[in-house]
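ok so for the tutorial part 2 we go from a plain amino acid sequence to predicted structure tokens. step 1 is just haveing the sequence, like this:
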Amino acid sequence: MRIIRDLKTAKSTLLSRSPYELYQASPAVKQRIKDIFAEELTPEQAVERIVADVRTRGDAALFDYGRRIDQVELSHLELGQEEMAEAYSQVDGELLSALRLAADRLVSFHLAHKRRGSLDFAEGALGNLISPIERVGIYVPGGTACYPSTVLMTAIPARVAGVEEIVLTTPARGGGAISPATLVAADIAQVNRVFKVGGAQAIAALAFGTQSVPKVDKVCGPGNIFVVLAKKFVYGVVDIDGLQGPSETVLLADDSADPALCAADLLAQAEHDALACAIMITTSPQLAERVDGEVTRQLGELERQDIAAQSLESRGGIIIVADMAQAIDLVNFYAPEHLCLMVRHAWSYIGRIRNAGAIFVGQSSPEALGDYIAGPSHVIPTGGTARYGSPLGVDDFLKVTSLVALNDESLTALGPAAAVMARAEGLTAHARAIEARLRQADAKGELA
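step 2 — the prediction. this is what the tokens look like for a chain of 448 residues:
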């Protein structure tokens, strides 16, 4: 791994990233677009065309893109109960138990953080009504890999929030099948309907609805460049949870950290994909050298070593700083999706960390545990958006309705000021609507 000792260099290279990188197509992606559309298009143009086509042709477009993009010939889009039941017979008991344990922990965590409305009756009734979104669409990547953990991490907060209907879309694999583990996770999370649709076409179907896929109110879940662009494109028609990009981790370590564990955590991040960012910031030059050696040694033992090696070479590295103050400044500058604290007195630094999607404290709290079973969702803001964004949670599936039910006493006290403000803005009808009520209130008072 590259080792950087200069803070300015670290900020301008390893810690420099732009949201626009998310939308840059590799040569392979450009060629794939050309193969599908028989012309050169940018990813944005390709997604715009797909979304418009799905909006116009509905199911016919979904079947068409299933053939052209996913290379699957589908006879139907929605998964039937028989297919769901069959999935259980294909998932071994150990995985089934793990999924159920993860689900139980997620339910407990999100129930503990569920927000409820409040009303203040001092002036009649002022407050917020909290209600769940009616229908939510969840996108889960699929095709060559399966992510049952993502099903749990997105569907369970929605279910705990009280969402009435959860619709899941995921790409079908060869032969039109969906990963049994994904289906079992969907059943455990009480997903209502599952559709064999992937990519930008799935996001369009959820946003606008088709003959088979119902229109939803919010779309959640990670995906590739086309999924992210489609979510960006349909935002406003529906709500979205965010524009999640490649995964990223910053490991903050001092000379008390175990170099083997540090290397293992960096590699766990790097194996996600070639665009993942695995970075260590340390106050110890000796630890930096030892971790570098451990990464080289452990890399050769991984099944996904080619992907991890690409990630580490292009986006990974180790930054050596003078002290923890510099280290935390770099963390807040970068605003990582995940921050792992492998330092002495880790809890003492929590209050100084302003920008991080999730913080993992100590060597007994590896990020990998958070990815699957700890409790909070692993759908976390990336690309520096932890400066203002938050992990997916129950609040993302709740909406607030303001309640204003004032009594006559409050009307009399507040009305004149409101009328003055309305006339200052030139909105005389607003003022007249208030003043008419003030006259009625005065008349009531005189009669009394």
